[in-house]
Amino acid sequence: MNKGLVLGVYEPETKDGAIDVTSSPSAAHFNSLSEGQLAKVLQVAGRDLKAGSSRTLFSVIPGYDTTAICCLGKKGAKFNEAEQIEEGWDNIRAAVAGGVRALRSVGEVELEVDPCLMAEAAAEGGYLALFEYDELKDPEKRKKPVNLTCLTSHVGSSEVGSVDRIKALWARGKAKAEGQNFARHLMEMPSNKLTPRLFAEKVQEKFSGRQNVKVVVRDKKWIEGEKMNSFLAVAQGSNEPPYFLEVVYKHPHCKMDKPLALVGKGITFDSGGISIKPSANMDLMRADMGGGACILGSILAADNMELNTYLHAFIPMTDNMPSGHAIKPGDVVTARSGKTIQIDNTDAEGRLILADALNYAETVNPLLILDMATLTGAIDVALGAAVTGVYATNTDTFNILQKAGTRTGDRVWRMPLLKHYTKQVTDSKLADLNNIGKAGRSGGSCTAAAFLKEFVTHSDWMHLDIAGVMENKDDVPYLNKGMAGRPTRTIIEFIEMVSKSEGSH
User: In which family does this protein belong, per the annotation (predicted)?
Assistant: First the structure.
């Protein structure tokens, strides 16, 4: 079996200089092993090699059939204040992803990957780049599985670190990437393959046998008993019965008394209901359960990383469909909290199911509440795919999340949670609240967040509107086109940071 190597190098120090193979311990090691042949080849093949790009070389490095030389950008890249990102780490993700893709395209399935002085980022880039949802295609047309291992044969200098340390960081990166890839997998699944019932079954299967994770599936009768009439109003238009999913993770040594409550939107398909969406690109609404998917990916990673923390997830799951049973514009329902809601747009359904889920999440007396939802097209208009929009009631908690995003490269941006927007949704002719507010499309993401806030009494709450980062086109170089699973890795990092600050370690 052929064997490939993904090897990191740096851009030239000067405009006319040569590719820097000496600053990378791995590249320097193999350059020496090849008696300087690597540097000589790169004098020609490495011209115009920029950050994130790669070159495929054949039979240059002894012991490897192919080598992808991937460019890590400028040596010494660190935190970029203007971009709010650890630039060096993100360069590694992009470079390794490019190298892994290049070698996969020439048929290599056994790859050793240079840890590039930050094995966690290297693993993230490699495993994220390998994700493909092709399980429904002809087996002959599916991508061949690729086995990645972390290169440690060059270890010997204090700059690189011990083999055990490198392997531990690699394992962290792999776990984070696999969590995000699980979210991507769920988001890509066709809605007929992931109805609310099938979604619940898939989650039960995924976490089966994991001692630290408990999955509880609530049926329609339970939902009715909890008087989640806002959730049920959305579900009544579908032939598929709704479910409410609870997933609890607690490390056996965790001393936290209160869990971090994670609430995720679980609309398994969103047609818009009576306020039906345009048919163009409606197929993408199979991923309208992206909030729930990212939360599940975070819990998977937390368990694989054995994070010393306590998590409690809440995911209401249903389709939003038009039918003779569907809610109609102008209908009024009473939410679990007792507040009444005038539903003027049935396509603003995510906030309706989250209203009851958020209210119910407070019953476990959480340390904080974080919800994620592909909630509004307005956030995509405002921020695009660069960052996730965040609405927070606690600045200190937001700052932790923001710091987590600089580390993972999956950044967040704070949005206004002002009384101005609250007035928009509490000015309702027929009820306590209106689900779209009197301003219509103006500030749509902000009014949606203000609506949700009316169902939260906890002082520490964050709402993440992830609609803008739902899909990857060419925005993130280490993700393929398709559903992005963002910002799963940022949530994992946030969970770990908060848990440590709570003294659970």
Answer: Belongs to the peptidase M17 family.
